[in-house]
Amino acid sequence: MRKLRFEYSMELKFSSPVSSHYFALRCVPGDSLRQKIMLSECRVSPADYTSAGQDGFGNLKISGCCAGPHDSFGYSIAGEALVQGMTVQKGSLHPMYRYPSKYTEFEPEVRKFGEAVTEACRREKAESVKEKAVCAMNWLYTHFSYAPGVTDIGTTAAQALRLGRGVCQDYAHIMTAAMRYMGIPARYVNGMMIGEGSTHAWVEIYTDGGWYGLDPTNNLHIDDYYIKLAHGRDYADCVVDKGVFLGGASQEQKIYVNVEEIRNGRDSNINGTAGR
Q1: How far is CA 147 from the centre of its chain?
Q2: pTM of the predicted structure, to 2 decimals
Q3: Is the peptide bond before 46 cis (omega within 30 degrees of 0)?
Q4: What pLDDT score does 13 carry?
Q5: Cα dist. 262→1, 84, 199, 208, 275 in Å?
Q6: Quick check: 269 and 7 in contact, CB under 8 A?
Q7: Are the beta carbons of 229 and 28 closer than 8 angstroms?
Q8: How far apart are CA 157 and CA 95, in angstroms?
């Protein structure tokens, strides 16, 4: 297992004061079979109240409200994580991870991609669930290009495939859709990884009675350099920060994410494993 130190902060500036601001945050990593979290800071401001609990997918969620006028909002999370990588997390399977969702519908582009991956699996004699998933990841990594700025948070797997390029969210949606099309349960994951500088997205497939992580953006198995924040059917189920407020203000957001390895009590930011 590896010990990591993490920091995650977000600052939101409004062009004019807003009020009745209700928010739901999935910015705090939780304990699981592959990670143990020790929080040293968890601050949300301004907030009249906050409450912590689990959402319907089992993710940690902080909910709250700031009723009075304010022109800024932010949170800061920090702590240490003891992480184990490349392991199946034993657990039950909910049927929803077998079927299409908002971002992963079986549109023609997804079906075409799924058939191409199925044929690649036949050629490579990939037979087990994990072998097929790795084959799909390799195929996606080879046939899809990383390009910031061409997609946005509303882009579906089919739309990204039509463009032939996108970012980590698109890689994760395409692979999730392809897995489900091939009859393999899969879920979308977001979190942090060392060297990234922002949140990252990847996929977990269900195999051998549990969940196993793969990162199609970087063509990697999820190891002990990744810290998970949340999972769901797709991006819509695990948005890091979501809110509504009264006011016609525009918004300017700044995000800072840093993950460092702790070696013999010292931090080491390993850029060699940086993601995209």
Answers
A1: 18
A2: 0.93
A3: yes
A4: 97
A5: 12, 14, 20, 32, 19
A6: no
A7: yes
A8: 20
